[in-house]
Amino acid sequence: MASFLNSERPPVFCPGCTHKNVTEALDKALQQLGLAAQEVVIVSDIGCSGLFDTFFNTHALHGLHGRALTYATGIKMARPELKVIVTMGDGGLGIGGAHLLSTCRRNPDLTLLVLNNFNYGMTGGQCSPTTPPDAVVGSGFLNRLEIPLDVVKVTRAAGAGFVSRLAAHRPELADEIAKGIEFEGFSVIDIWGICPGRYSRRNKLTPKSLEARIEALEKASGPVAENVREEYGAHYRRLAAGQEPARPPRPVKAVFEPPQKRPWRVLVLGRAGQRVVTAGELLCLAAMTAGMHATQKNDYPITVLRGHSVCELVLSPEPVDYTGIDVPDVVIALAPEGVARRKAVFQRLKPDCLVLRDAEVSIASTPAEVLAVDFRKARIKAADHALAALAALAFRNLVLSPAMLKAAVEHRFQGAVRAAALAVVEAMSGGG
Amino acid sequence: MALCFMEGNEAIAWGAFEAGCRFFAGYPITPATTIYNTMLRLLPPAGGICLQAEDEIASIGFCLGASMAGMKVLTATSGPGISLYSEQISFAVGSEIPLVIVDVQRLGPSTGSATRGADGDVQFLRWGNSGGLPVIVLAPVDVGDCFSLTMEAFNLAETYRCPVFVATNKEIAMTRESVDWDKLRRAEPVGRRLCPQGADFLPFGVEKGRQVPDFLPIGNRRLVRQTSSTHGPDGYITTDPVQIGANQKRLLEKIESRAERFTFYEEMAVKDARTLVVCYGVTARAARLAVAQLQRKGQAVSLLILKTLWPVPARLIAEKAAGCRRVVVVEMNMGQYVREIERVVAPLPVGFYGQMNGELIGPEKIMEVIAHG
Ligand code: SF4
Questions:
Q1: What CATH number is given for B266-372 in this structure?
Q2: Geometric angle at alpha carbon A85, from A13 and A83, rounded to 5°
Q3: Per-residue pLDDT tens digits for A45-59
Q4: B287 phi and psi angles, rounded to 5 deg
Q5: Could you report the predicted ipTM of this complex, rounded to two decimals?
Q6: What residues flank ligand 1, with Cβ below 6 Å?
Q7: Is A75 in Cβ contact with B68 (below 8 Å)?
Q8: What is the pTM of this model?
Q9: What CATH class does B1-262 carry?
Q10: CATH superfamily label, A19-241
């Protein structure tokens, strides 16, 4: 099998750099597996390991520091048949830490070669996440303040399916890489190397001492029994295939005449739990059953289970331009939380405005007509107050008619929910 | 008329889907999350891919990888996420990776207010990439635009091999409105131009007379190289100043010299207008009401609504301002796009009103600005 190495662009590493061993081992592994160049993508990170893509005649993507796994994941999801190999230094591992952990958790079929040489070679030998505290590096005393990250421990704990650690000069490196590529899941190969350009000038490091240090650590070679599971992409496709196709947007049939052919600005002031947003939607749908246009702007706190819930609804025979409401035509006051949110509005109301308020909710004085509705007498639960308020309007043939409201409920709900909502509407037929 | 009721974010997702987008990656963020929610309903059952990443950097990174593998891709976020996208946007600009990015703008600075609208990112979108090369930014006014402009955004991203932004606003994104679904403008979807079989392929090779390199996906029979480093046509690093300079110029010109082909706008013009109001985004809706009312009173006021913000449609703006005594700009920030208008219409005086308090700018306010501002 022919070499994948790009004869026009031979490796340009410093003499004695073990990145060269990794380059050769990767080439050998690809040959061993009998892969075609078209089937292989090398995604390289930044730093000396970021040169890898240029040495090989394969597909290649070289991107930003620490982000190589993100591009690789996108490629693999789009083209599952490709063998995607990522080369990254110990620096990329740190800056892309969140991506490393998440990729372990996902277990996509990617092979990550960590070219771990305990420092940032390209920028002048500063400390990296794997620098021992006793090393002399280009970061002054700062590496003494941090402990090195154990790639094997971390990636195993995070869920990588295949984790190996070995020194770059080991003869079995090519086999280990080939096994990693063959493994269906995320393979992390932590390859310890020597950076004569920066690191081993100031720190005594030989192939022997490197191996001794690896020996002293937890052994790692191959699949991690407790992490072996379905590959991410295959799993995604299996679950995705079982999803219901999305239904296209459903138009509302315009079959009624609105009781008044004019624009309405309706403000609903409630609180969480009163289904204010749903009622707002129902009012808009009801308007649409009479050929009106509608907009709905909601205001509620990020914590949705408590606090105010306010809806601004604009209904109009013409398409709606401005969706804000400075002076409403109708205010539905259902809860003190909502009323407090729009305190100032009540004074601004015109005399021909209507305020429909829950009999138990007090409001500021207003020039508008005020109508109190007793939901308790009609035996309406709090969750249905907003809908019941719409029904109260409908039975006065104001803004909407009972037929419009019922049609909106039927458009929006099915089955038991629909029946329950229609019952709430009916319960208000006496006027509340 | 068949009215459907939906919010801007849903319309964006449907627009993307109809444009042929089958890959979405995002990270939850109010007020953009419902784009992700909708894509999650649309894509998996259609054989597409919808992913939630560990952060915004990863979500756009997934998209860049998938785009290089040949897919039409979308991501969506808001101010804090756009900030994190920045380095990847630079990658997409410099390395010509087609991608549509939705920025559902919310009130900033920083985390600001998640549920309050603003148009505070419009200069950031243009200049928030290292190197400062141009991008395309479209700005919808309503739910219908969210759909139609998203379809256009995909066509532009594919045609020009660049990131295209849809700069929306919480006030359009999360406001539901009735929309005549079947009548929405639907641009015929186009894909990126592939390098023909038999022709020589260089990843960034550009034929004479063209400015956009032909594409081949990673995984193709012919090997593809992509790199974020300064590169020559072969996708390998270059240090040749002539080659580098020519490439930067091409990246600039491929977008800017074609601006007129994708200048989207709307207007309410009167003959012999003395004042031209320029607006974009949700503010344009209030401006329509304000200008309509003034026009009914016989005032010589025209309205220009820009839906392409970048590249600045300079010729259009100059043309519409010609003959006016002044221009008025109203926007939901403290004065961003007005700088472009001032530059283009100089020496015409430009009145300005900017508001960034989480509230919509109403028609009354705009009338007041037109009268006195
Ligand atoms: S700086 Fe270090 S890692 Fe980089 S090429 Fe030189 S020896 Fe190798």
A1: 3.40.50.920
A2: 140
A3: 999 999 999 999 999
A4: -65, -35
A5: 0.97
A6: A 13-14, 17, 19, 48, 117, 121-122, 195-198
A7: yes
A8: 0.97
A9: alpha beta
A10: Thiamin diphosphate (ThDP)-binding fold, Pyr/PP domains (3.40.50.970)
